[in-house]
Structures are given as C-alpha cells and as structure tokens.
Amino acid sequence: MHITKDLVAASAMPLVLGILTEGESYGYAILKQVNDLSGGQLEWTDGLLYPLLHRLERLGHVESAWETPPAGRRRKYYRITDQGRAELAEQRRQWATVVDALQGVWSTSQSIKLIKAPAWESAG
Amino acid sequence: MTVDSNHDLDSQIAEWRSYVHRRRELHYTDVEELEDHLRSRITELTEAGLRADEAFLIAVKRMGSLDELSREFAREHSERLWKQLMLPGEPDLPAARSRRELPVMVICAAVAALAIKVPSLFGLNLDDEGAFYLSNLSFFALPPLAAYFVWQRRLSPRVIGALAGLFILGAVAANAYPLADDSQSLVLTAIHLPIALWLVVGVAYVGGEWRSQRRRMDFIRFTGEWLIYFVLIALGGGVLTAFTVGTFRAIGVDAETFIQSWLLPCGAMAAVVVAAWLVEAKQSVIENMAPVLTRVFTPLFAVALLAFLVGIIWTNNGIDVERDALILFDLLLVIVLGLLLYAISARDPAARPVLFDRLQLVLVVIALIIDVFVLVAITGRITQWGFSPNKTAALGENLILLTNLAWSSWLFFGFVRNRMPFARLEQWQTRYIIVYFVWAWTVVLAFPPVFGFA
C-alpha cells in the first residue's frame, strides 16, 4: 500500500513528537521507530526527517544537543520540550476529531456502497 | 566487513559529503547529521548481509534526491539563502588566524582613527592647518591598512621594508617641499599622493606578488568593491551624524564640535580599514557589486555620451575649455575606464563575445572621439597660456587614459571579431597599472620642483 505524500507530511509532526515523549532520540532511531509502528507501511524519504526536526526545534517543540558516546561518533539528539508536549496534546485532539469524522464517513459510505453495488453490476 | 571495504566505504562517504557540501542550504552540522544517518543505515544493511558498496548505494538512495533535500532545508532555513556575513564563520573553516582576523582589523581601524588626532597633540588643529591635513590625509589610514595586509598575508621583511620605504618617501614629498597653502602643487599632491600610496597598499594586498597579472586583477576588483563599501559606510555615517546632532540638540547640547573634530575624521579613517576588511571577508560570500553596477551603467553611459557627441556635431558648438573642463573630461575617461575594468574583472576570459561586449566597445569609442575634440580644444589654450602644474597634470592624465582606452578599443575590436583572445585585453589593463603608479609618483615627487613650487 502506498500512502500519499500529503498524508505522510501531515502525520509526520505528531509521530515525531509522540516518539520523543518516550525519551530523547536521534534521527535514524526515530525513523526506525516510525517504520516499526506502521509495520513498514509509512515510507519516509530519510533525508526529509531532518528539515522537520529542525523546524520543530525552531518552533521550540524540541531541543537538541550533540553528544559523543565513549566509543562512537558524534550524534545529534533531540528531546521534547513542555511546549512540544502541549503541541502534541493539541494535535492529538485534532487527529481524534478527524478520525471520528472519517469513521462516520466510512460507516455511511459502507451503506451507500452496499446499495449501489448491485446497480453497477446490472449496468455493466 | 574487511579493512579494505571499510576504507572504500569511508572514501565513498567522503565523496558524498563533499558533493552535499556544495549545497549552501546545507550547513556543516546538517551534513554531519545526515552522514550519521547514512552510516547508521549502512551498518544496518551490512549486518543484514549486504556488501558495503551495495549498502552505500541503497542508503544514499533512501536519503532522497539532493535537490528535494536542499529545497526542504531551504524552506526551513530560508535565512541561509541570504548569506550572513556577520555570523561567525562555519566551524569547518578553522585556523586560529581567522579568529584573530576581527580583533586585528579592529586594532588597525582604531590606529587609523586615532592617527588623525595625533597631529592636534602637537598643536596642528584640523580647523587651522587645512593644508597640512590635505597633503597628509593618506598617512592616517593607509599605513594601518597596509599593516593589516602585512599581517594577513604574512609578508616577508623585504616587502615590508619596501612598503615602509615608499610610505616614508611619500611623507617626505608631502612635507619637505616648501608649498604655499594656496599653490596648485599642494592640491595636486593632495590628489595624487593617495593614489600613489593606494597602489603601494596594493603591493601589500597582493602579498608582494606585484608582478603577477592575476593578483593585480584581484587588486582592481578589491579597489572597486572597497569603494562601494566605503560609500555605504559613509551613508550610514551620515545617518548616524544626523541623528546625533538632532537628538543632542533636543536636550540643548551642541554636538557639532564633537562631530566635526572627532566623529567625522576618525570615522572616515576607520572606515578605510573596515571597508577593506569587509571586502576581504565577503569576497567569496556575496556577489561583487562593482560588475553589477557596471552592467547597469554601461548602456546608460553609452547613451548619454552618444547624445553628447551628437550634440557637439549638431550644434557645431566647440567645447568650452574653461578652467575645469579638462578635469571634467579626465573624470569622464576615468569612469569609462572604470566601466571597462569592472566589466573585464568579472568576465570569464574564455566566453565568446556577446552583445554587452559590443556595447562596451561602442562606449569606449565614443569616449575616445569626445576626448579627441577636447584635446584639440585644449591644445590651443595651452600653447596660448603656457604650462601650469594643473594643466600639465590634467593633460598628462588625459593622455595616459587616452592611450589606455585607444589600445583597449583596438584589442576589444579584435576580440569582438574573434581575432584575439580576451585575455590580451585583461593583460593590457593589469600591465598598465604600472603607468598609473609611475605617473602618480611623478606628480608627487617631480612636479613641485619642476614648476618651482607654484
């Protein structure tokens, strides 16, 4: 299944913020987690995660720091801020509304489809 | 993974990094972050059984196209498209020297600013001793500027000695000759000594390689940009002055004395050094302005001069060669030469002639024709009244510029007709600098005694 670009873009911010509520992380690990959470369905272009992280940082939703583990290379870690948590809560409310509305649509369209389907068959 | 494939991988990543670095939307730390990502992806893929080079290809592919990536980065960091000069340099441009660059520049600027106040310690005030300041103006700012380049280019003692010698020679010429305050020679010295010493600064600028034609061209570029920056700083200084006077007047304090005896002279001297530093600091960051202005004004000047030429012929009026006419036309030639120089300075020598080059040629030829009219008119005057220092200098300059432009237009003509490489024209201009050098020093050193200190 291919998820459209717009949908990926819209869900990216709450996903990243949500993952960061579990603790600080870095780009590659965030991407892995998105992959795991979506069962490999949500495909991001790897590089594009970083402009998003930078935007979140500029808006003050996350903060970053370069850390060098004892044996390893320098890596930039991101951590969610209080403002970021508030933003995530807000986004969550918005998504809940959208999902509710969609569920309403699915249930009505289900019935429409059930009525219309035989009509198509007879026409074809 | 073997040691060998590890080495291959590192070199592949290094290549990728240098490729990505070319995008100015991506800063050094961004690339570092992306590289970390790339390496993490490669590690995962090789652990899954892929060979290092295969893993590299996949990882790069998954990173996304560089165009898309830099577009996204640009959207997020739009300020990066506007190069910010005053921000500290990127961390990948190391060298302790560049960190000391700013303090050294500030010291040189401060020395220049204070130097102009030193004579007043010995009772030579700016208001009463105008003649002294007029002929010595270049000794306040230009030695600190030369010193800055000496430090920056790490010049050898021999070059430093030559520079110091020339500055001392200039100082002697400016002060040892018994010139009256209202003499023509004093004004000539005041005009030509800065030019002579500016070319001496040029020797410091090119790091002592004054024979190198490429470096001379760099100095020409530097001069144009410096002038633009100096004017910009002067405009800012004007605003500062206006506000200082206005605000202090509002509280009943007269700031004009402070401005006239401190802010203006010290500010102007410091601006000489600061403008030079700005040019150096931003030369690879911002597009040079002088060639841009040249592009804008070459057609306009061509039209204006053509109109003037048509006017001469149409009305059949001779040119009025009263007092200042010759100097006016000298300045006109200087402008035309400047337009030519800065068009050359920004041109790719290998490019084919285009319409703009033809326009440039037309401009130079019109200027030449006008100047011939002027010379014919002035020769009559000189044979009638004899040579004075002013007239001789103005005439000499006119001939020097005329010679330059005449030969330039010949070379240009050959270039436009595809008969000659453009580099010939460039070489001619850079070689000719020596003529300006000799002339400026001749006026400063030889004119006063030759004309009996008139």
Give a verbal description of the structure.
The complex is a heterodimer of chains A (124) and B (454). Chain A starts with a helix and ends with a helix. Chain A has one domain (5-119): Orthogonal Bundle (Arc Repressor Mutant, subunit A), CATH 1.10.10. Chain A has helices at 5-21, 27-37, 49-59, 82-123, and strands at residues 25-26, 62-67, 75-80. Chain A has 124 residues and is mostly helical. Helix content of chain A is 65%, strand content 11%. Chain A is built from 4 helices and 3 strands. Chain B is mainly alpha-helical and 454 residues long. Chain B folds into 3 domains: 3-81, no CATH class; 99-286, no CATH class; 287-420. Chain B is globular. The N and C termini of chain B lie far apart (87 Å). The model of chain B is unreliable at 86-94 (pLDDT under 50).
Overall mean pLDDT score of chain A?
85
Question: Any idea what the shape of chain B is?
Answer: globular
Largest sheet of chain B: none
Distance between the termini of chain B: 87 Å
Q: What fraction of residues of chain B sit in β-strands?
A: under 5%
Low-confidence stretches of chain A: none
Order of helices and strands of chain B: HHHHHHHHHHHHHHHHHH
Helix proportion range of chain B: over 70%
Instruction: Please report the two chains with the greatest interface, counting residues with C-beta closer than 8 angstroms to the partner's C-beta.
Output: A-B, 18 and 21 residues
Query: What's the CATH topology label of chain A?
Result: Arc Repressor Mutant, subunit A
Overall 3D shape of chain A: elongated
Topology of helices and strands:
The complex is a heterodimer of chains A (124) and B (454).
Chain A: H1 5-21, E1 25-26, H2 27-37, H3 49-59, E2 62-67, E3 75-80, H4 82-123
Antiparallel strand pairs in A: 1-3, 2-3
Helix pairs in contact in A: 1-4
Chain B: H1 3-21, H2 28-47, H3 52-63, H4 66-76, H5 96-115, H6 118-121, H7 130-136, H8 138-153, H9 157-176, H10 184-205, H11 213-250, H12 256-282, H13 289-315, H14 325-345, H15 355-385, H16 389-416, H17 422-445, H18 447-450
Helix pairs in contact in B: 1-2, 2-3, 5-8, 5-12, 7-10, 8-9, 8-10, 8-12, 9-10, 10-17, 11-12, 11-17, 13-14, 13-15, 14-15, 14-16, 15-16, 16-17
